[in-house]
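> tool_call: predict_assembly(chains=two)
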Amino acid sequence: MKILLAAAGVAALVCTSAHAATLDTIKQRGTVNCGTAPNLPGFAYTDDKNVRRGFDVDLCRALAAAVLGDADKVQLSPLNLRDGFATLTTGGVDVLTHRLTWTYNRDNGTGLDYVMTIYYDGQGFMVPKAMNVKSVNDLKGASVCVAQGSTTELNIADYFRARKMDYRIVTFADLDEARNAYEQGRCDAWTNDRSALAARGLQLKNRDAHVILPEIISKEPIGPLVRQNDSQWAHVVRWTFFALIAAEELGVTQANVDQMLKSEVPEIKRLLGVGDDLGQKAGLPADWAYKAIKQVGNYGEIFERHLGEGTRLGLSRGQNKLWKDGGLLIAPPFR
Amino acid sequence: MSTDVLSPPHRARFALPHGSLAWRAFVIQAIVLALIAAFLAWVAANVVSNIARLNINTGFSFLARPAGFEIAQKLISFGEAATYFDVFLVALINTVVLTVIAIVFATLLGFVIGLARLSTNQLVAGVAATYVEVIRNIPLLLQLFYWYFAVLRPLPGPRQSLDFFGIAFLNKRGLFLPYPIFEPGFCALLTTIAVMVLVGIVLAWMNNRHRMRSGTGLHSVRAIALFLLAPPLLVAWLTGFPLSWDVPALAGFNFAGGMTVIPEFVAMAIALSLYGAAYIAEIVRSGIRAVSVGQIDAARALGLRSGAINRFIVIPQALRVILPPLGTQYIVLLKNSSLAAAIAYPDLMLVFAGTVLNQTGQPLEVMLITMASYALIGLAIGAAINLLNRRVQLVER
């Protein structure tokens, strides 16, 4: 499989000549192609009506609404972590709205660019309650199940080495297998991004018998990736997501966006393209942000719909609150 | 001389072809070759220019960079400063060790089942046939998962480990065995043992030769053999028994010390051996069936017993048929071992083509190295089987 993909990668490298500007390609094609995680409850998954849903999926839909005026004009490619990079590099998708942590090595020398941070995650640990472990620092000598393919293996190595703690790692190629082995008792603890622990933990037979430890051993800024050297498209992605954040900050929601068109607040007017056309500079229609908010909702609404405390995942906003509420999310001014 | 007349005419090996038809064939082949070469050159140039345009790092310098992550099974020393090349070696060794173990057990089991399927006892033959049909018709990946969780499920946690005389322990985290520690002087002991074994082999050979000539063995040999034990014991006593054992002991969550056989390895070895054995059994059966019944009848007519018939008539001829497909099966086994990634056995595919690929973001180089490694091991297996095959082939005179 992997060899096939590498071969496909080579083939794609062979066959692709110079890329046209991504934005023009999208307008011509009529769909925005996004790469998302294959199956991560809350973020990107297929629901019982066979519809792809989730936080990452909605980010993609917002892009389609902004660029093409219709949130349904998306083509979603479920990609595992490894294949994501190659598929984007070779033009298989326009953007990765995936769970990919922004790191130096991924931003440099891969031919790809991180655009912004849309979700602040961190690596955590899940242990059986019966083990009576209160902190990661109690896990000296423990066996730890982990799924490869992200920064997870390096984080745990760094954390345990820095504290001179011994540990045994059991690395799985796949998240579900890692969870399964942990559940079977192969490991004392299971580590991953806390959002993934929450999402995958739902599939444990007895979720209440397990607990997520308080420590977060890494910072995992997660955000969309685009191909390098296409700043027009990078700007579209970045400012569409900023628009979702700004909308929450300004109190513009999916429900009230139509009334907000009559708002007298200057920044809301600029955001929604009333009296001013910010869109054209980015190659977008004047109502790009309006369409995105109207069809998908603002950042807070997307979060609560898929991840929030009312959902099965039950994640709190945490660091993903707006800057004015003590979180890390901030959109530069729309002016 | 008449022999000169009889010997075939000497032909130059690279002589240009004669005749218009031969010329046409030559030109067509040359053109096809040139086209293929041109296509490959175009592919290479295009890849190079595209990589340059996409700003992707290239080259193999990443192999010298520190890797910084842990691996579950390391058969060579692997510290914090280990580079990606060290990771490659660790993963390669894991793949080779697994493949070799699986080949050994698959071969042994395959021969037994192959013979059992030919048994005149209907029950034995039926069981062997069922085994082959069931195992061959279930995807190996499923069998891997089955064995992994079949191995894991019944085992106790570390605190309730199965205890073997206080020196070996078995639990969900693996089989914990004492690890030998070689103290100074061990090398001298090892040398003494090696020398004595060598002397023993020479003695056995002399004994055999004598038996062939005179019909009786050298009676003194057994007595001398006893004396061979003396020097190693003496050296061991002089050096103060230079071997001690690091016995695993429960410390916190897990056993520390000693050495560990991880359950992933056990599950992989079981699944690959059982799967390979089903195919090898069929290869063995076909090989034995290929020996003509007349040969066996003739051997019987000469008064040979069934053991001798098998040893001198059937097996030497069957091996000629068995060996070539057996070699292919070994290579298939090697390639099947790459499924290890599914159940966390840290082989070349999981660690190198997985984690290293992710960390470095250089899929072309990493996959190239991985593919070349599998190809080289496969070619080595093929070459070994070919050597063996040459020895058993019928010598034509």
